[in-house]
Amino acid sequence: MTLRQFIRSDRSIHFVVAGLAVLILTLILAYIFFLGTNGEAETSSYRETTVSLEELGIFPLPPVRSPAEESRITFGDFVGAEACRECHEDEYNLWRRSTHGKAGGEPSPERIIGRFDRIPLQFRDAEVVPSVTAEGEYRFTVRQTGLPEKVLKVDAVIGGGHIVGGGTQSYFSKFSDGTLRMLPFDFIRDENIWFVQLRERDLWTPVSREISLSDLTHWPPFRILGTHSDFSNCQNCHGTQLLVEYDSAAAKIETRFATLAINCESCHGPGKRHVELALSESLRAEDIGLPSLSALGKDGSLNVCFQCHAVKDALRDGYLPGMELESYYSLKLPILGNNPYLPDGRVASFAYQQNHLFSDCYLSGSMTCVDCHDPHSQGYRDISGNALNGRFDNGQCTGCHAGKRVSPEDHSHHVPDSPASRCTSCHMPFLQHRGIGKQLKFARADHTISIPRPKFDAMLGIHNACAQCHADKSADWLQVKVEAWYGELKPHNMGVEGILKVKTGHSRIEAAELLLHHDSQHPGAQVTGLVLFVKNFLSPDVTSMEPEIIEELKMLSTSGDLDVKALSLATLHYCCGADLSIRQFLEEKLRSAAADEVSLRSRWTIALDDLGSLHLAMEETDFAITVHRKALEVSLDDPTAWLHLGNDFAHERRWNVAEACYRKALKIKETDVVAYIQLARALMAQGNRSAASSAVRDALRYDPGNSDARQLLEASEKPN
What we know:
- By secondary structure, the chain is of the alpha+beta class.
- The protein has three domains: about 55-65 and about 510-715, Serine Threonine Protein Phosphatase 5, Tetratricopeptide repeat; about 100-255, no CATH class; about 295-480, no CATH class.
- Helix content is about 35%, strand content about 10%.
- The chain has 28 helices and 17 strands.
- Strands 1, 6, 7, 8, 9, 10 and 11 form a seven-stranded antiparallel β-sheet that branches. It has a four-stranded antiparallel β-sheet with strand order 2-3-4-5, with no helix packed on it. Strands 12-13 form a two-stranded antiparallel ribbon.
- A hairpin with a 6-residue loop joins β10 and β11 (about 205).
C-alpha cells in the first residue's frame, strides 16, 4: 500500500523570466477572487470557482489524446464455476477441494474457525462478545463504556486458516451504505485465539485488557471488500468478479461478486463466450473464446497470479479478471510509499509472493508461479507438470537444476533425506512478516529464492536459513562455514549492490552511479534505486543538474517496464521540470506513448503526488505545493492530486485557495467523501458555517457512517 492510499510549480516554463511575477499575481488574484466567499450567504457546496490554472501556478503538459477503445468486460460476461464442471470435471473437483475453492463465503459451521462461543473479548474500555444465534447468525456484540450496545452481524468470511506458517480468518459486515466492511477481530488457527491489529506500527497482538478499541487500526470499521478509490480497501483479491460501484439511483454503494471463493474465471477470465462456443460445437484451436494461459509469456503468466498475490497501487476502479492488469494497477509503485521490500527484495512488511520479481530464477530465467504450483489443486509440481509429494520436494528445483539431482548431499553438505538437505530449507526458508511484529506466527516461504548469506542476513535483521536450524551458532561462524563449502558467493545484481552501498553522505553524482542502472535488467531494483535517489538526493526544480544524471534518467525512461518508465519521467519532472529542454523531452515522451499513454500518465501522477505528500508530512509545504502542481500538470483530472494540493494550502491556512482545490476535486469526482470533509473544514475556517454544513451533508450522503463527517456536522451546526 502506498502513501497515496494512506492519505488520501512555482514556474512557467515558457515564461521563465516572468515566473516570480506570476507567483505574486497568483496570490493577489486568489485573494481578490476569494474575498467575497466568507459570508454566510453562500450555502452551495457545488459553487463553480473561476480561479484559473495560471493563478494556481499549474501549466499542463499536453492533454491526453483519446485512448484506444477498450474491449469492455462486464459482470454479465462471467458464468460461474458450475458452468465449467460439465466439460472439465477433473479440474473442477481439484479446484473445489483447494484453498482457492475454500477461500471464503457466507458464514457457516463448516467455514467458521473462530470461537463464537459467547466468551467475551475483554478490552480496556469494552467487551466484544462473539456469538451465534439459534437461527445460525454469527455476530459480534460490542459493549463499549459510555456508548449504546452495537451488534455487528457477520455477512462474509475471508480465509480459513489454511496456510502453513500461520493461517487466519477475517470477518466482514454489510453496512447501510452498501459496503462490506472488515471487522477488526480476527482469528488465527494455530494459536487458537482472537487477535487485533494496532494503529501503532500495524502490529498484530492477541486481545487483552491493555488495549482500547480506539487503539485498533480498523475501528470503527472502514476498510471495505473490493477496490474503490473513495475507501481504504482490500482490492479485488478476496472474491470472484468483485465490483464496488456507486449506484446514483439508489444513492448507495453496490458491492457485487459471484462468490468469495477464487474460481475458474478469476484466472481464465470471463467464460460466457467459451461456453457459447462449446454448446454450439464451434470451438476451434485458433479460437476457444478464452485466452490460453499456457501460451502466456513469463510476465503475463505472473500477472494472472499477481491480480491477488501482490501489493498493488490502484490506478483506477472497475477491474475485472480478463482486463489488462497493469492498466488498472501498478505492481512496483508501492515501493515509493510503504515499501514492502528489503534491499534484496525480501519481505520488509507484507508482500511475500510478489518478491519473486527479485528472484534470480525470474530475472535470469523464465520461472513463474505455475512452474511449482498446480493452479487447480494448489498442490506442488515440477516444471514439466508432474505432481510432487509436497511443498518440500526437491523436484521443484531439480527440474531445472538437474546437476543437483543425483547426489544432492554434495551440494547441501547435509545428510540425504534430512530436512537440511531440502532445497527449500536453504533457499526458501520461512520468514516472519516483519510488518506485523512477532507476537503471532505469520511466516511465509522466501520467494526471492535467496542464497544463504548469514552475515548479510543478520545485518538486515533476517532470521536466515542457516540460523533456523543452527540457532546456537553466530552469524560469523555460519558465514565461515558457508564460504568454506561454496567459496566466494555469487554477487547481488548491480542494482541491488548499489542500493546496499549507497549512503546519505554520498554526493549526488556518486549516488546516481550506485542507484541508477538503465542496463541492470532488474525492474524491481531500478524502481527502488530511483525512489532512494529522488527521496535522498534530489529536490524540486534544482538549480543545476549533472548532465550524466539527466542522460541516465532519460535512458531509464526507455524501459519496457511501465513503472520504471513512469518513475524516471516523474523524477525528471520533479527535479528539472523548469528546464525548457527537459519540458520538451517530457512532452515528446507523452506524445510517443501511444497505447500506453493513460497507464503511463497515471503512474507518473501517482509518483509525483506521493512525493508531494511526503514533503507535506515533513512540513516542507512549499515543496509539497510545487510537486502537487506538477502532478496536476500530468493529469489535470486527477481528483486525489487536487485534494492533496488543497491540503497543502490548508496547512498554510490559505483556506480560500484550499477551498478552490477541493471544489476542483469534487467537480471531477462527485463521490469523494474526503474532499467534502476537507472542503467543509476550509469553509468553517473562513466562517462560512452554512456552506460547511452543506458540504458535510453531501459527504454523509455517500458515506452515512463516516465518524469524521458526523463530528464536523455537529460542529458546523452549533450556534455561534
